[in-house]
Design brief:
5-stranded parallel sheet, alpha/beta, globular, 236 residues, Rossmann fold
Length: 236
């Protein structure tokens, strides 16, 4: 691709980093977008900066919004982050770590930035296999937002441009995600996936995100370079 550009949502976790690396490998110039939204794991933004530098993005913007004003999630309110849950429990129901309308909010900002840049490709690292309980990670949601993007913008109506929401990870298992990133030379040691890290940026190893990450590395036969508070915790 020549002169292809994409707005990529970059949280600093392994999924968004892999999606960004895959997009770069396709020849896109990356415009990374991250959010400081009142999340308890705001240290992920340092990881996002590291990943953005590692991938050589054209520009990295961090937007401040405060979803603590609404709460309703273990990530934005004084609600305990679930720990040591089984794979069966993790894969069922909508967990308390779901942040109401978060992906809709993030994609709306990405759409606004894309329109100002004259970009029609937006990338989000959602995954429907591990987080089937998250309604805003499902293919039908992404299809609906893409339809909205083309109805609700000047670019999509007057200029007849077509927005595409890319979800390169949506049907991949965590093992496959790890394998894709490793094959592209992505340094997963730069990422932080944990919902409840220490002040030093060490992952807890016990929340859902940590357990799924470690499972992915284990099944891929690769060592997880992430830093954990207690070695061996969270292995399942």
């Amino acid at each position: 691709m020549t002169n292809a550009r994409a707005v990529v949502l970059l949280s600093g976790g392994m999924d968004s980093a892999t999606a960004a690396a895959m997009t770069k490998a396709r020849g896109f110039e990356l415009y990374a977008l991250s959010f400081r939204y009142g999340q308890r794991h705001a240290l992920e933004l340092e990881a996002a900066r590291r990943v953005a530098a590692h991938l050589g993005v054209a520009r990295h913007v961090i937007v401040d919004i405060d979803l603590r004003a609404f709460g309703g999630s273990a990530l934005t309110a004084e609600i305990a982050v679930p720990k040591d849950r089984s794979a069966e429990v993790i894969g069922s129901g909508i967990p308390v770590t779901y942040v109401p309308a978060r992906n809709t909010i993030f994609l709306s900002f990405a759409l606004a930035w894309a329109e100002t840049l004259g970009v029609t490709d937006i990338v989000i690292g959602v995954n429907a296999l591990d987080y089937s309980g998250y309604p805003d990670c499902r293919p039908e949601y992404i299809a609906a937002f893409q339809h909205l993007a083309n109805l609700a913008t000047r670019a999509g109506t007057e200029l007849k441009q077509r927005f595409t929401i890319h979800t390169p990870l949506i049907l991949l298992a965590k093992r496959e995600i790890v394998e894709r990133g490793a094959a592209l030379g992505l340094d997963y040691g730069l990422t932080l996936s944990c919902y409840d890290p220490s002040e030093a940026g060490e992952a807890c190893g016990r929340c859902d995100a940590c357990q799924l990450r470690r499972k992915g590395f284990r099944e891929a036969g690769l060592e997880d370079p992430g830093k954990y508070q207690t070695a061996g915790r969270g292995e399942r």
